[in-house]
């Protein structure tokens, strides 16, 4: 079977709705044997600043990956964009319609699944009005920019009007879908002392209403009714359980995953709408839960239907769990309740025994497994108490005290377990957050050694619980804040990977093509059913791409990881750029220094360079005999006039080369300009100087005999011997003048000799 890769966009958030949407998609795709690829949008959740730019990065990356299908939650994108649905649909155009499934919006040209909030909301309002007889009903809506909030509040007003109930202005208020609206609930209660019920646009708002009512000493379901919307996992385990409209993003994620898989298989669309329904529990004064009666009926059956009871407890305890977690936890739950049954039977055989149905050791063993967000200890507690209450009603009189003791023990042990779990979670969270915020600390100390820095970053990933990770750099950072979009390179440079605790850092140069990225990484993530891919950003620049498995990190921690790595990438790039610029500057300085002291054409020292080199020789060789040589290329003017200046330049360069070969290497040799050369050499006397000059002329004679150029080389020379005096650090001008005079004297003698020969 081919393993499909389903992309999910824009749900990498700390908010409950996108989290459970992703969990539903993940579990469904995992159960079918495929892989979920979450594209992290990295939006700063506290401000939503530049949300469109971050979403554009996510959409662009998704469009370039080799995904089999892409799920685009348009409602989530609209919420991130502060209700700007046009901007959300504009971003959708980046994606290929042929393999994109749109959620929460009906968009022409795309497969779409929409939500129908109306049925459940109508049922909720009719339940409050017709079922409970309430007329003073308030509504706490969501933000005015939210389409879902608008739909729910419209039905509130419709049903109130349909039942002839006037809605006073003070009964309608706006809250926050995140639940941060305690002040709104406080004002609502202050302005409406005769309030009978509060209908909330989402469960998180309802949770806040519970907290405010409890603080005021008001009982939910008795003094004031409360309803929610969404059926969040905690809703069934509140005290009292919350009556709500079931429209869970988890179910939506499951449906989206199934339709995405149908798209991959080339099948027609099956589901187009997810519909809501009202779930009555106890928060409006209902007696709809029926848990005690259900279990009492089970207790009367012989044998006791253990499988049915374990299934009930599984439903109460596990939320948003995939099949692998469900099967694993069920084994532990069956073992646990086997011990509970044995303890109960021992008590029935010997009522005087001190057997505990729920021992601390057994509870700890049941919950020591890491089931992450899939487990609700509160839900287990509620189900177990229901069992004991059913036992209490079915027990003979002499067992009542014992059952009451079991209830008390269970309350105490679960409270301790919750407290212990809470403390452990805080410690783990604090540790992870500390590591997360310090991901790049050690790496930045190695900024002169990028390979070591990348290795340290990946090792920190391992400490955070990440099992698999790959880091890639773009050839050049890209500014991604421009509203018109940006061009994303296909080439990525791999800088390192984490594979089951082993860190590999790319020592060699090479590239990975972005469309082939999934083939490179997903195939390695053996046993992983979710891969998270996101752009690594630093300020306004996209630096690279990171791929990780979620591990033990929360969505917020994953965001911090990406931002920290972006900061590290930028810092390392700046250090590398600084080093590169310093090297270029150093090379340029060396070049400028050479140009200031050397003749460009011959490579010999120029006048300035020669004088500097001569000064160094004289300052460190006091007492030695030295000679200044003036050398002049004969006939350069004739060569230039008859053969051209380029040929004349060649003659100068040939002469320079012969001088370098024939003069001692521990001396100084320079070109003063034109055909004039100067040298400073160490010599024991004039004979040694003459030998040097003869060697030069001999080399030229050999050259003339073997070279076919239309000119010959010869030089005139003048020399001046002297003893280097102590403290002298520059070549005296008088010595150079003497050598120069002797050069011209030699030239005059040669001219006179040639004239005498011509006259003879």
Helix content: 40-55%
> Rg to the nearest angstrom?
44 Å
Distance between the termini: 110 Å
Structural class of the helix and strand makeup? alpha/beta
Which sheet architecture does the biggest sheet show?
A: 12 strands, mixed
In round numbers, the mean pLDDT is 84
What fraction of the residues are assigned to beta strands by DSSP? 15-25%
Task: Tell me about this structure.
This protein has about 750 residues and is α/β, with parallel strands linked by helices. It is built from 24 helices and 22 strands. The strands form 3 sheets. Strands 1, 2, 3, 4, 5, 11, 13, 14, 15, 16, 17 and 18 form a 12-stranded mixed beta sheet that branches. The protein has a 6-stranded mixed beta sheet with strand order 7-6-8-9-10-12, sandwiched between helices. Strand 20 and strand 21 (about 675-680) form a beta hairpin. Helix 5 packs parallel to helix 6 (about 145-160), helix 11 (about 305-315) packs across helix 12 (about 325-350) and helix 22 (about 645-660) packs across helix 23. The termini are far apart. The mean pLDDT is about 85.
